[in-house]
Amino acid sequence: MIAIVKAAELFTRREEEAVSPKQERAVQEILSRVKREGDTAVRELTARLDGVELAQFQVKESEIDAAVATISPGAKEALALAARRIRSYHERQKSNSWIEAEEDGTVLGQLVRPLARVGLYVPGGRAAYPSTVLMTAIPASVAGTEEVVMVTPPGPDGEVPAITLAAAREAGVTRVFKMGGAQAVAALAYGTESIPQVDKIVGPGNIYVALAKRMVYGQVDIDAIAGPSEIVVIADENADPVYIAADLLSQAEHDPMASAVLLTPSASLAEGVTNELQRQCEALPRAEIAAASLLNHGALCITRDLAEAIELANRLAPEHLELMVEDPWLWVGQIKNAGALFLGPWSPEAVGDYLAGPNHVLPTNGTARFFSALSVDDFSKKTSLISYSQRALLRDGPGVITLAEAEGLQGHAASIRARIEKEE
């Protein structure tokens, strides 16, 4: 079910989801059609690709009211709890504008402003992902974004799951549209008669959504290109194989392309985890998906010691990294690359997916080396503020002239020289 591999094999086994020229051409055609034909193209593509005929895309407020009324008290309470914790965590991320005056009268600063309108892509269709609604909408709200537009594929009945709409209401989404795939990304990027153009698109999706986001980057901003989910668990001989197997399966059940890896210096623990994976996987409703993930992208690696496990994890730069060791805090300082870090046996990855507070939209496929979790900063922009005094410009101007002339930009130098000469 899952292979025991040597350290070097961890990196040869890892590969990106294959993108074919046919898929790229299909997405490019969809983008061009939506840009050219607007709502007509979105409606036709939704009917052809999703099998749903829609008279209108936007979900009415009355529909959201009706959906919220069907949610059980327990579900409402869980959504509210998750929203409170996510909001509280992201409130701590807010950056403030600042202005600082220097003795010579120069004033420098930075203005922090929210993006005006953002688009959230929330996967849907035959599944519901209310957690993704909360994780993408709440940071935008905390940043002060005025308009938060959400797109999500409708189910076969043409409707959006009630729990998804309830999450949108809880998170403060402004408008919800029933559409998905590359056509939804195109609609957000270019705007149509019904769907407003946004400044940025965030949220995970399938390969067609990922390709579309990549292709519209520059027309709008995007968060990142999301790949299959992944988890790395570092464990010592004291860790519980039942917990480790459960956490590996929590990612393996996402997708046959998902990656679940255990790094441990304990051969006996690895054997215990192997047995537990077999036992627990058989009981999962998504056992077939999880088994395929473990077979093709899962791995158990016996390391020399915990130090080597940490070094391998830093090279893998996983989306989720669990430290299932006796004193995880001793090792935190050595973790350089991870989307999210989970410490100890009572911090399973699943709690981070739903309501711990930190964002679950995380860098994948090794991009934690340079990308971060979705945050309030993703919904803000920063403007530099410069107010030089006469005294300061006369003092610093010769330096500007020297540098401008070194670059061959005489006009830059002249703009400074004109002011200096007038004051001489």
Automatic annotation (TrEMBL):
GO terms for biological process: L-histidine biosynthetic process. Keywords: Amino-acid biosynthesis, Histidine biosynthesis, Metal-binding, NAD, Oxidoreductase, Zinc. GO terms for molecular function: histidinol dehydrogenase activity; NAD binding; zinc ion binding. The active site is at E319 (proton acceptor), H320 (proton acceptor). Coiled coil: none annotated. It holds the Pfam family Histidinol_dh. Binds 1 zinc ion per subunit. SUPFAM superfamilies: ALDH-like. It is an enzyme of class 1 (oxidoreductase). Zn(2+) binds at Q251, H254, D353, H412. Belongs to the histidinol dehydrogenase family. NCBIfam families: hisD. Catalyzes the sequential NAD-dependent oxidations of L-histidinol to L-histidinaldehyde and then to L-histidine. This is Histidinol dehydrogenase.
